[in-house]
Amino acid sequence: MKKCVIFALCALLLLPFSSAAADTLTVYANDVLHAVSPTLYGIFLEDINCAVDGGLYAELLKNRSFENENLWNPQHADHWDAWSVKKWEKARVTLETEAPLHENNPTYMRVALEAGGYARICNQGFGGNLLRGGIPLSMGESYDFSFWLRWDETAAAGGKVAVSLMDTAGNSLCGAPLEIHLAQQSESGSWCQIGTVFSAEAAAGAVLSVTVSGQGTVELDMFSLMPQSRIGADWPGGGLRADLVEALRALHPRFLRFPGGCVAEGTYVRTDAYEWKTTVGSPETRREIPNTWGGMLTMGVGFYEYFCLAEELGALPVPVVHAGLLCQARDVKDPPLTMEETKAYAQDILDLIQFATGGADTEWGGLRCAMGHPEPFDLRYIAIGNENWGAAYFSRYDILSKAVKEQYPEITCIVAAGPVAEGGLIQDSWNNIRRRFPNDLVDEHYYMDSSWFPAHVSRYDKYPRATQVFLGEFAAHEPVQGNRRPNNLYAALCEAAYLTGIERNSDVVVMSCYAPLLSREGEVDWTPDLIWFNDGEVYKTPSYHVQQLFSQACGTELVNSETDGDLFQAVTRTETELQVKLVNLSDSAVPLTLRLAGVQDQTARGSLLTGEKNHANSFARPDKIAPQAVECACENGEANLEMPPYSLLILTFSLAENK
Ligand code: AHR
């Protein structure tokens, strides 16, 4: 954080205003209004914009298991995606499904060779094309590589498989290739896993090159290449990209909602619904399904890994399961589960809770232990449905949530209130919920124009307090420029203004998270997004900084505060500190007097986020809009300062005296 000493003392000396002309914010530090929810700020991770596969997931090979399907044309299963046969002689390379590695993982590659034959097959990674290797190698980094292999007796006589990482001109980037002489392997006829470590001798875009030679039949499946400097290398799925995990950790999320969003519901047909059970166990036994947003969900990050990530971040896990319906907002092909089917499906949700919390002696708790986590995960919530509404939803939610409450009364069920902020649909949802599920947590989602947010800062002031809200997806949307909605400062400040209202209502809004979280440059399904990345870089948006600043400076109690001006504000405290949050959405500086009765003389620390309204960050200028450290003097219970145009200021004062 850049540091600049500004404000109070300087302002007193330099600014041409008298405190009589300034706005005032009066803070009654000892007048506590209510507790602030300890889970107020969290994150929502969905595999949209290649957030997970091709992003957070450390796997560098695309379509590693030949399961890729073409979402838009199910007749055309694009199992060759990212793979190509570069050279061959006396060889036939095909994709097969007979006697696969696992029934959930049906497709594999077969190379059938006549005597003296060979075939060279390449994977170009997530960012590759014919001219560019898309596997990003970093000089000096080591990479864990593995794949599964099966061969017949003829190949056992003299067959060979050679694997290397090459540039597109065919030069090795990791020294000598891995060479497997099948005659030296123990047995033919069954699948075996082979692994090695490659060390990169250059920083380059690579392709994985697999050359099979000899005679007979060699079959290959489930390739994997991951940098060793990943997080979660001991998780069965293999782990996560470290720089992206650090960006998430720095948000101090109190919870992690996963795996969607629409992803949690599935794609168009019932057989492609997201079922948590086929996302756990050994990776080669997990079932890939088409991702609603395009590409495939490899499930290398499955429910176990999402739970581990939550734990890694110090966040509570908030799993989302479908409610027996495919996405209601899409033109899906299959009807919802019948009521009988829904009753049976309830067991899957109970099994998920057992997976997360059950002992080693239970079926699903035992699987969690076998996967490497004997301790239970700290599961307190389960969301049943995403952006659902109407009788079709509430009748199924009723069955499913009742089953959970009967067996696990300590788990809070999260009920969807639909995909909109206003109008008949959400009104109808709330009517249903208040009548039938008043003790459940209500998942509101809305993406609105930036200006909507400050205009509705008091949305929750009038919400009855009996039923609590989870603002599970929100973002301020600016008008589209080119083909994107920009992540500019103004949108971020509108969100900040709104969050002051959320904090002031944090007795009823107990959780909130921005959406979407991550976007891979070049793979954009949705804008704006909180964090952008490419193969090697990450940049944070102004909205990210807002989330981080609010999350870092979130007190435990809301205190009474009032302003006579147009600034947006919320003030919280802990036993020892007072956090003052202020947002100026206007194009003029606002002189401000802070009245802080009872706060001792001191220089408070703080963060300022400001700049040009339309400015945004980018890979070239990642810190164009970034928080600056500031200080502010408080004397005789008063601080005079100036809020710059378009700014968020958060100041933290120490409180020596007890309340
Ligand atoms: O956040 C992107 C999408 O927005 C989510 O998948 C869905 O829940 C909402 O419509």
What does this structure look like?
This protein has 12 helices and 31 strands. With 659 residues, it is α/β, with parallel strands linked by helices. It has a 10-stranded mixed β-sheet. Bound molecules: alpha-L-arabinofuranose. Alpha-L-arabinofuranose is lined by residues 46, 48, 260-262, 386-387, 419, 445, 473, 515-516, 526. Residues 46, 48, 260-262, 386-387, 419, 445, 473, 515-516, 526 line the site of alpha-L-arabinofuranose.
Tell me the number of helical segments per DSSP (H or I, 4 or more residues long).
Answer: 12
Largest sheet features: 10 strands, mixed
What ligands are attached or bound here? alpha-L-arabinofuranose
Terminal Cα span? 32 Å
Mean pLDDT over all positions: 94
Strand order of the largest sheet: 1-29-28-31-26-25-24-2-27-30
Strand content: 25-35%
Low-confidence stretches: 1-18
* Helix vs. strand class: alpha/beta
Task: Give the radius of gyration.
Answer: 28 Å
State the helical fraction. Answer: 10-25%
Give a summary of the structure in a few sentences.
This protein has 659 residues and is α/β, with parallel strands linked by helices.
Secondary-structure map:
Blueprint: E1 2-3, H1 8-14, E2 23-35, E3 43-44, H2 52-56, E4 83-96, E5 108-123, E6 135-137, E7 142-151, H3 153-158, E8 160-166, E9 178-181, E10 192-199, E11 204-227, H4 242-249, E12 255-258, E13 289-290, E14 296-297, H5 303-313, E15 316-321, H6 339-357, H7 363-371, E16 381-384, H8 390-407, E17 412-416, H9 424-436, E18 441-449, H10 452-455, E19 469-477, H11 489-504, E20 509-514, E21 518-520, E22 531-533, E23 538-540, H12 542-552, E24 557-563, E25 568-573, E26 577-584, E27 590-596, E28 602-610, E29 628-634, E30 638-643, E31 647-654
Parallel strand pairs: 1-29, 2-27, 3-12, 12-15, 15-16, 16-17, 17-18, 18-19, 19-20, 21-22
Antiparallel strand pairs: 2-24, 4-5, 5-11, 6-11, 7-10, 7-11, 8-9, 8-11, 13-14, 22-23, 24-25, 25-26, 26-31, 27-30, 28-29, 28-31
The protein binds alpha-L-arabinofuranose.
